[in-house]
Amino acid sequence: MELSVLNIKGEDTGKKVSVSEEIFGIEPNEHAIYLDVKLYLANQRQGTHKSKERAEINHSTRKIKKQKGTGGARAGSIKSPVFVGGGRIFGPRPRNYTFKINRKVKTLARISALSAKAKIDAISVLESFTFDAPKTKSYLTVLNSLSLVNTKTLLILPEVDSNVYLSSRNIPKAKVTTVDLVNTYDLMNADRLLISESALSNLETLLNK
């Protein structure tokens, strides 16, 4: 499979790059994608939710009314869940939401996500570029040239470029990442993948391990 290389002005440079069919041309495995996205979202949860049960409520322990003769049900403690301010029955407790999936499944999920984007022609390869200084306007100019201002984009770089990252940080729907930090959620969440020409070989090497 061959992809055209664009410059940051959105113009076709005339160059083409060959990409691996084993990464960009397989039939996507939707279940692997589902598992990896589920794992990513589970890992974002803090799991620090907590409510107090009746044993943890700080209230008086006196009996709030006499046992008999009131015409109502017995009531021994204001901490009872049936009263306002009482403990909560089976409330949430701190827990860890993470779970494990095999490394090969994670790799298959990322490959499937890239193949799914390639199928719908949602991948653009850009000539390697950088900025002299971090300026939001510079990154907006690039997106304008590619007609992607209001589109969810994910730019994949071979390594950290502070100027490019800082230039994109304040732009809604624009995200910049590096090859070693690419994950299935970001790939599927983006409407358009922008892959730096110099990042392609690194990406293929990483996923072919």
UniProtKB/TrEMBL annotation:
InterPro entries the record matches: Ribosomal_uL4, Ribosomal_uL4-like, Ribosomal_uL4_dom_sf
**Region (Disordered) spans which residues?**
48-75
Give the GO biological process terms: translation
Query: Can you tell which superkingdom this protein's organism belongs to?
Result: Bacteria
Q: Name one GO cellular component term.
A: ribosome
Show the Gene3D superfamilies listed in the entry: 3.40.1370.10
Q: Which Pfam families match?
A: Ribosomal_L4
| GO molecular function annotations of the record | rRNA binding; structural constituent of ribosome
**TM annotation in the entry:** none
- Keywords for the protein's UniProt record, in alphabetical order: Ribonucleoprotein, Ribosomal protein, RNA-binding, rRNA-binding
Family to which the UniProt record says this protein belongs:
Belongs to the universal ribosomal protein uL4 family.
- Which NCBIfam families did the record assign? rplD_bact
Q: What does this protein do?
A: One of the primary rRNA binding proteins, this protein initially binds near the 5'-end of the 23S rRNA. It is important during the early stages of 50S assembly. It makes multiple contacts with different domains of the 23S rRNA in the assembled 50S subunit and ribosome.
Matching entries from HAMAP family are given as: Ribosomal_uL4_B (MF_01328_B)
PANTHER family in UniProt = 50S RIBOSOMAL PROTEIN L4, LARGE RIBOSOMAL SUBUNIT PROTEIN UL4M
Quaternary structure note: Part of the 50S ribosomal subunit.
Q: What is this protein called?
A: Large ribosomal subunit protein uL4
Source species:
Dyadobacter koreensis
